[in-house]
Specification:
single chain, 172 residues, alpha+beta, Bifunctional nuclease domain, two-stranded antiparallel sheet, 5 helices, 9 strands, 29% helix, 35% strand
């Protein structure tokens, strides 16, 4: 039986080798850090949720949340269930009319939805064990910093300089 560990989003970072966005998950005790490489659009969606930014028109993850709420369903949790060849797999568990439904999802989308619905984020223990390790440091407030998260101006500069055709270069 697979065991899961609850994790929270520690932040968004950039891979210093290729400037690809990374969502960084951290367990509740601060012992484990899990980096997941994601696309630029998903990084933007996750960052907007973290910062509490609301747009005048719904973005895709907001639309998904609204649809789930409108039909009377609830998102129970999201799970990062596997990693194969450095590709992560996730499941969104939805409860509707007393029945659980498990929906295959990219972890980046599942995390963006979990942040909007205040749903738990859980990661299979074997995924934490098998994933790429990162060196994490903590700033004076105890916040975990990974990669360019230490330099928010650099992240902003990279995002501002990106062209629309750059968005297709990243794979989640």
């Amino acid at each position: 039986m697979t065991t899961f560990m609850e994790m929270k989003v520690a932040g968004i970072a950039l891979d210093p080798t290729n400037n690809a966005p990374i969502v960084v998950l951290r367990d509740l005790e601060g012992k484990y850090v899990l980096p997941i490489w994601i696309g630029i659009m998903e990084a933007s969606a996750i960052a907007a949720a973290i910062e509490g930014i609301h747009y005048s028109r719904p973005m895709t993850h907001d639309l998904f949340k609204s649809l789930v709420e409108t039909i009377g369903a609830t998102i129970e949790r999201i799970e990062v269930v596997d990693i194969k060849d450095n590709v992560f797999y996730a499941i969104i568990t939805i409860e509707y009319n007393g029945t659980q439904h498990k929906i295959d999802a990219r972890p980046s989308d599942a995390i963006a939805i979990a942040l909007r619905t205040q749903s738990g984020i859980f990661v299979a223990s074997h995924v934490i064990k098998d994933a790429i390790r990162v060196d994490a440091s903590k700033d004076s407030s105890g916040k975990v910093m990974v990669g360019f998260e230490q330099d928010k101006d650099k992240l902003k500069e990279i995002l501002e300089k990106m062209n629309p055709e750059d968005f297709g270069k990243f794979k989640a």
